[in-house]
Amino acid sequence: MEERRIGVYVCNCGTNIAKMVDCEAVAREAEQLPGVVAARSYKYMCSNPGQEMIQQDIRDLKLDRVVVAACSPRMHELTFRGALQGAGLNPYFLEMANIREQCSWVHEDARAATSKAAALTRAAVKRVVFHEPLEKRYVDMCPATLVIGGGVAGITAALELAGADQPVYLVEREDHLGGNVARVDLTAPYLDSARDILAERIARVRENSNIRVLLESEVQQVTGFVGNFTATIRTGRDGEVATTEARIGSVIVCTGYQPFDAARVQSYGYGWFPNVVTSFDFERMLRSGRIVTDKGAPPRYVAIVHCIGSRSQEFHPYCSRVCCMTALKYAHEAKSALPEAYVYDLYIDMHAFGKGCEDFYRRSAEIKTIFLMYRKGSAPEIRQAGPKYDCEMLIRVNDQLSGEEVDIPADLVVLMVGMESREDAGKVARMVNISQDKDGWFIESHPKLDPVATTTDGVFIAGACQAPKDITDSVAQARAAAARILGKIARGRIEVDAVFAEVDEERCSGCRMCNELCPYVAIEYDETKKRSHVISALCKACGTCVASCPSGAIKARHFTDQQIFAQIEGVL
Amino acid sequence: MAERKLQVALYWGAACGGCDVAVLDTNEFILDVAAAADIRLWPIAVDGKYQDVEAMDDAELDVTLFNGAVRNSENEHVAKLLRRKSKIMVAFGTCAHLGGIPGLANQFSREEIMERAYLNNPSLEVGNRTLPQTQTDCAAGQLEIPRFYARVYRLADVVEVDYTVPGCPPHPSQVKAVLTAVVTGTLPPRGAVVGASERAVCDDCPRKKEEKRVARFYRPWQIIQDPERCLLEQGILCAGSVTRSGCGVRCPNSNMPCRGCYGPLPNVRDQGAKFISAVSSIVDSKDPEEIDRILAGVPDIMGYAYRFGLPGSLLQRSL
Amino acid sequence: MDFEPKIVGFLCNWCSYTGADLAGTSRIKYEPNVRVIRVMCSARVDPTFVLKAFEQGADGVLICGCHPGDCHYTEGNYKTMRRFPLLKRLLGDYGIEPERVRLEWVSASEGHRFAEIVNDMAAKIRAMGPCLARPALTEDPAQR
User: Fold this and answer.
1) What residue spans define the domains of chain B?
2) Quick check: C135 contacting B, CB < 8 Å?
3) Considering the entire predicted model, what is its pTM?
4) A273 and A367 part of one domain
């Protein structure tokens, strides 16, 4: 092998490293290693003078590899890669030794710390010898987007993208757009009409020539990678079926939620008592303008029960977020339609965290909604009222506010059913290769900092398919996802990280051991060549396939066997 | 005047004789070799004494095909002698290449082996419990036999090896190819593995490879196998994916799993480690207990991982 | 001199390496016996690396990855988990004691846990003495 010219730079980090590690001794020891032409210690390597020192050496001493023994590479690897690049060296010719976070800060014996720092530096020097120049690569970005689901999130995302003159395929399983919001009368907390919100937007979708709406359609398959997916969409039911092949660059999954099945909670007698209804049944009454019992009479007592299927050990542990305010909305709507009726609201905790919500709660009390608080785990029980009562049912509730067990009368009981992930969410997840959490919701790339992206590049999530949420948040997510995609489209091409796995087809035996292992389905098997290869744009460089390849035919760029062997030799 | 004939030696160290038979299995081709070469030493077939070899000039032999591992001082002595006398030293067959089946003895100490073979073996005659000694005094004087080493070595551990021909034994067609290359002087660059593929047995195996997910492992007799499908996918512990091809896929084509005799692939340092990777990769479970249960179906991991190559592995021997 | 074990640690970039860094930023003190090699995912750890470490004279090997279910790469750690039982059995057959090789899940927030694991492992191996795998490879030819 040709002789390397390596520079080693040991950072004192002020006294952060130097007070526990003899940096000069580490540099002197590194100087003895084969290929090392300069080894220096310096107060702050990451400072401008520090970086300039490295760049000067690269030019003067014709260095071709650089080792920086300093803080964690998670801290300054990009900084020093930049320094190398600035001096005309490939940035991947850098290796760092972590002698601060994993050495000087955690050890108390200076001699042992120095010897460990020297070993880590030695390992970095041995490793960097085998570093290869890596270049970032780019692939073209197809501007079209596939939006799966025509609810409020899907509609919003489609309009946003189409408004920027980008083509959209909006795929909806039902024969109309609108999703769950189309089943709703008014919205909380401002009591706007959901119909008004939707109708205007659906009309705009219909008019926009950039949006191709496919109703009664389902996405069958998505193949490819960010910027270059192909989706197969099937339209129509029994008999008349059409298939659309769409070339797309991005996907937004907006498949929403399904309501919890109230019949699963037996103590409420849903399906048994004709006047125990779910929130969605009640919305239907509200939309028709007639709140009546099964006998066609207006109820005198309306009871609204929260948390059906939510916040329960037995069903869903999570809060469905929208039900509390929806329940208050029902109280308002019931009171306004039936001013003489008594409205009871049975809740566990009143979650009124959104903008305008606490106000809304106060106003609900002002219109004389009677609130009762029950304990989690001790659900109210509904029974038939006897002839001596002027109501149809009685609800026994252990009221936490008064501390008493009371029976409240009811002619109509509304069960606030929670949200749950759709039954077939798993199918969607597998199709676009995203993950689900334990409750079936799709997982975002980062819960705080990257809430609409997923671990698959080019696939985004918006709306209640990610977790229970209201219209406001669904719309915000949909627009965020659209903005992310427009950003990628504006750049026109996608940067593919230089670090990924690649199959040496000369060594691949086509054993297919790796095919199933890749979490990103980045490994493709070519039936005619009988070889596997990695689609680099899909690869995230975890190295699972590399470790498993029985032929040693897969190489992890920047984490090659040779590099890691050298490091093992170096630390020991 | 006729051209000088090729000067050849064939020797066996710790071996079963199969490699020598493989040379004979080239059938009438061996006559061509005999016509083109003087076979100066071949203990299994030709009379020849060590003194004859000692009497040769250094590098007088063109090539030595050395089969067998180095188990005792005689193996090492002759290996060094032949190395000195040969222009080209070939590690011929798996035992010379990686230690082979005799290499499995590296799981045990010399003392354990001696005890098992000579003191504590049910087939020994009652009352006859004698440990062999390197030196024995008798009426005729002092007798000396080779010393049994503490472990088995590859040929390359004791002498410099120019070429390696893997296989237990090497396939006759590969033997022919190698001998032809020697005779015609068309050997590849020094250090090469000859008579084997650069790819795994799977490359040549005609069985269909699909999804690899296994919920139970089987030994060959525990399952009625699908003769068309990859054995490993059926849960049969086949080493084909971790083994160089060149054998003609003899075992899988006979409905038996590959045992790995051609050794690791060129980019692989340790065949057994890769065997572990391969077998574990296809276990179809995420539950630690179930994983343990499934992998409990893999018997004798050392034997499976290094059936032919323990002395050639990274750690070479058990402690 | 007293025996100080040399332990090679293979840490995944996203959880365990970050957790080890956190031990540093939190100034949690632990034994200097572990030398860390960063890999992107614990599933990159080829069993060959572990054998290589013992061949090179390691007294112990520690592999750390994200907790099951939390892998940055969805389920790489399950693949690490699957490889480990056979690797451990093989090392057992090599005569390398089970305490010398450990697979542990350390999240990015578990700096304390990382420190405890290192201390525990260092103490156990210190009590056991050096691993003999490397000396067994480098014996004097005359002693064959």
Assistant:
1) 6-101+152-184, 110-149, 201-312
2) no
3) 0.77
4) yes
pLDDT at A433: 82
Alpha carbon distance C19, C80 (integer Å): 18
Report how many domains make up chain A: 4
Residue A455 pLDDT: 77
Are residues A267 and A246 both part of a single domain?
A: no
- Write down the CATH number for the domain with range B6-101+152-184: 3.40.50.700
At residue A526, does pLDDT exceed 70?
yes
pLDDT for position B1: 40
Which residue reads 């290589």 in tokens?
A: C52
Domain with A508 in it: what CATH number?
Answer: 3.30.70.20
Cβ-nearest to B199 among A509, A515, A517: A509
Helices (H), chain B: 18-24, 29-36, 50-54, 73-85, 94-98, 110-114, 155-158, 172-184, 201-204, 250-253, 271-281, 288-295, 301-305
* Chain C neighbors of B298, CB-CB under 8 A: 86
Of A504, A510, A547, the CB nearest to B277: A547
Taking the Cβ of residue B286 and every Cβ of chain A, the question of whether any pair is shorter than 8 Å is answered with no
Contact criterion met (CB below 8 Å) for A161 and A265? no
Q: Which residue range(s) make up the domain with A268?
A: 259-419
Q: Where a domain ends, among A493, A508, A530?
A: A493
Mean pLDDT, chain B, rounded, equals: 92
Could you give all domains of chain C from N- to C-terminal order, each with its CATH number? 7-143 (3.40.50)
Rounded mean pLDDT, B224-233: 95
Instruction: Please report residues of B whose CB lies closer than 8 A to that of C82.
Output: 280-281, 283, 285, 291, 295
| Token pair of A289 as six digits | 């303008």
Q: Do residue A172 and residue A234 come from a single domain?
A: yes
Q: Are residues A213 and A339 in the same domain?
A: no
Domain C-terminal end among A477, A493, A509 = A493
Beta-bridge mates of residue A507: none
pLDDT the model gives residue A538: 85
The CATH number covering residue A192 comes to 3.50.50.60
Judge if A278 and A404 occupy the same domain. Answer: yes
The verdict on a CB contact (< 8 Å) between A550 and B277 is yes
- List the Cα angle A154/A162/A146 in 5-degree steps: 50
Average pLDDT taken over every residue of chain A: 94
CB of A69 within 8 A of CB of A76?
Answer: no
Claim to verify: residue A272 and residue A397 sit in the same structural domain:
yes
| Residue B200 to residue A506, Cβ atoms within 8 A | no
| Chain-centroid distance, C-alpha A78 | 26
Give me the interface pTM, i.e. the ipTM.
Answer: 0.97
Residues A459 and A462: their CA atoms lie apart, in Å, by 10
Selected for mutation to probe chain A from C37, C77, C112, C117 (highest A CB count within 10 Å) is C37
Give the one of A512, A530, A565 whose C-beta lies nearest to B212's C-beta. A512
CB proximity under 8 Å: C 41-100 to B? 46-48, 50-52, 54-55, 68, 75, 78-79, 81-87, 89-90, 93-96
Interface test with C, best of B280, B304, B307, B317 (most C CBs within 10 A): B280
In a domain, A272, yes or no: yes
A510 and A362 within one domain: no
Of the partner residues A510, A514, A565, the one whose CB lies closest to the CB of residue B202? A510
Please name the residue that has the structure tokens 């030493």: B41
**A200 and A342 housed in the same domain:** no
For the residues B35-61, what does the mean pLDDT come to? Answer: 92
Write phi, then psi, for B279 (nearest 5 degrees).
-65, -45
In a domain, A570, yes or no: no
